[in-house]
Amino acid sequence: MGRENGLVVGLDVGTTKICATVAEGNGDGGMDIIGIGTAPSRGLRKGVVVNIETTVDSIKRALEEAELMAGVDIHAVFVGIAGGHIKGLNSRGVIAVSGKNREVTARDVERVIDAAKAVALPVDREVIHVLPQEFIIDEQGGIKEPLGMSGVRLEAEVHIVTGAVTSAQNIIKCCNRAGLEVQDIVLQQLASSLSTLTPDERELGVVLVDIGGGTSDIAVFVEGSIWHTAVLAIGGDQITNDIAIGLRTPVHEAEEIKKKHGCALASLVPGDQTLEVPSVGGRRPRVLSRQTLCEVIQPRVEEIFSLVNREVRRAGYGEHCAAGMVVTGGASIMEGVPELGEQLLDMPVRRGIPTGVGGLTDVVASPIYATGVGLALYGAQNRHQRKFRRVAEHAIFNRVAERMREWFGEFF
Prior knowledge:
The chain is of the alpha/beta class. It contains 13 helices and 19 strands. Strands 11-6-1-2-3-19 form a six-stranded mixed beta sheet, with helices on both faces. Strands 14-13-12-17-18 form a five-stranded mixed beta sheet, sandwiched between helices. Strands 7-10-8-9 form a four-stranded antiparallel beta sheet. Strand 12 and strand 13 form a beta hairpin. The longest helix is centred in the C-terminal third of the chain and has 25 residues.
């Protein structure tokens, strides 16, 4: 039982796969990965649950595999959330320091963050994260840790991540039906950043792009903090569909072709390489040039990079990313993705692989595990501080009902 209390489990509920990652404290302040379980995801579309029963089945299968590998029972998880409904905005809060001798206390920090997150939200949205960027004491900015400092006026710049109440509630419902307690809901690109980015990259300014099956999740870091988040409703599934249509082959075969032979930059592929492409309707397989496959894949990957670039520049952070871009997620495994990104964007691009953990490092050394490992790291960092919310399935409905009562109260 003592061992179970020291466990942290991250559950990456993705469009293509569901991954459970079990981590355990190693006594040196770090975390060891002791179990991994994956299962194909069939109940999500573009990061959002569209079929609860099939999602629950996939979660159970991933959990069974992780429990078997780790030799433990899993009862609670930190679960990732993504999808086009995710929106991020920056906000500022201001308070007067009330502590003794005008010294900033933990209560003051709590108050200023509460002031910063007091933004008007539609009834169908809720706050998922409030991420502090910097604190300002008497017009002195750039402060990361204000505790104990003296001042009269305390300000906080924060990044607020919001999501659709119903989408969050459906993920919680799926986990509850699989016999799990949700300790917190975590933005997927925030989780991925914990496992793939270095402190130097965060400080210099970097764009993280997690290219999953249904969505591409973006996070922009400047001076060590998140300043912008966005979700694009395009991912690896679109590449697979392009291959299926372009090469006239079944979708499941197109996925295998993408994994085995896919390359995002046609100039990297020798002209004499060929592959066998299964046909539909019982026709005989055909032999095609691998360059033909690359010519189908490359425009879609170019589109993803151009949409990411447009989003970052629209938000005003195009000149703040000296460390370039880090791409992670399943679709980034394809050969040529970082090279194509460097050509198009004229900035350094690297593939992000989970680091900073021990244990089964060789098993998780792939971009597909970036979010799962990051969720476990997030859980380890926030478990002792008790920052997470234990969300009951009915709690979100209660919040919605309360907001609606307030709204009607204004008019009647």
